[in-house]
Specification:
- By secondary structure, this protein is mostly helical.
- The protein has 15 helices and no strands.
- The longest helix is centred in the C-terminal third of the chain and has 28 residues, at about 310-335.
- The chain is globular, with a radius of gyration of 21 Å.
- It starts with 7 loop residues before the first helix and ends with a helix.
Amino acid sequence: MISRINNFDFLRLVFASLVIVTHSYSLSGAAQGDPLSQLTHGQMEFSYLGVHGFFIISGYLIFKSLLRCKGLADFYWKRLLRLFPALLVVLFLTVLLAPAVYESSVPYLQNKSVYTYIPQNLTLFFRQKGIDGVFESNPYKHSINGSLWTICYEFSMYVMVSMLFFIRKKAFVKTVVILLFISSYFFAIFKPYFLYGVFVKIGLGSNHFYNLMCFFAGGMVLTYLKINNKRTENIIILLSFIVLIISLYFNISKYTCYITLPLLVIIIGKKSTQYLNKVGEVIGDTSYGIYIYSFPIQQALMYFFKLDTVMLFILSLPLSILLGYISWHLIEKKALQHKDLFAKKAIHH
C-alpha cells in the first residue's frame, strides 16, 4: 500500500475547488474569465491547474498501481470501480431530478434524450451533453454536467498505461515511460494531425489528448524521482515556481508547464505537511465526487436563483463538498471494498 500520509488528498480537494471557481464564471455568464485567466492574459485558468493537477497525480498513482497489480484484470477492475459507481449515481440522479428544471412542450417521459442520457454517458466516449429542455434558459445552456468531458481522457490514459504490463523487463519500462513523456511533449507542442481522424471517431479531441497525456506521463516519469533531501525538494519547488511565473510573464508557459507543473504537484504531494496530510482521514477522498457533482449543482443554482459569479461560487463550493463527501462514503468507498477481487483470484490460482 502507498502511505496515505501525504498531501495528495489535500491537493485534489484544492484542484476540485479550482475547477468550481472557473465554472462559476462561465456558468454565471460572466463577461470575463476567472482572476488567473485575467492575470495571465488567457494563458491559464484555475480550472487549467485543477484538471491538469488531477491528471498529474493520476499518472503518478495509476502507474504505481500498475506496477503492483497482479494482472490486467486486477488493474482494470480497480479502475472501473473507481470511475463507474459514482458516475452511474450522478447520471441517475440527473435524470431523476431533471423534471424540477425541465421546460419543454414535450412531456418529460416522452422525451427521447431522457432515455439516452445515462447509457451514452456511461460509454465515456460518446457523451450526451444535455437533455432537451433542461437548463436551456441558463446563461450556459450547452451542458448539464460539463465536468464529465475529462473522464474519457482519463480512461484512455488507463488503457495506455496498461500496455506497459506486457513489458517484462523493469529497466525497459522506465525507458518506455521516459520516451512516452518526450513524445507526448512533442505532440502537445506541435499538435500533429496524423491521428486526428482516429480521435474524432472515438469522440476525443487530438489536442486535448496530447495535452492531458503529457501531464499524465509527467506524473508517471516522476515515480522514478527519488529525493531524500528536503532542502533539494524545496529548491526544486522554488525553481519550478520561478520558471512557471517567468514563462507566464513572457507568454511561453506552453513550453514549460509540462515540466514545472508535474514537478510542483508531485513533490508537494509526496510531502507530508501537518494538518494537510489528514484531509483524507478526516473527510475521505472526496475530490472525484466534488468534481462530478459541482457542475449540475451550479447549473441548478443558476436556474433557481440567477446568482452572480461570487455568490454562485460561495454557495456551490460547500454544497459540492457535501455531495462529494456523501458520494465517497456511501458509494465510492463501498465499491472500492471489492477492489481485491481479481488479486485474490490470482493468489488462489
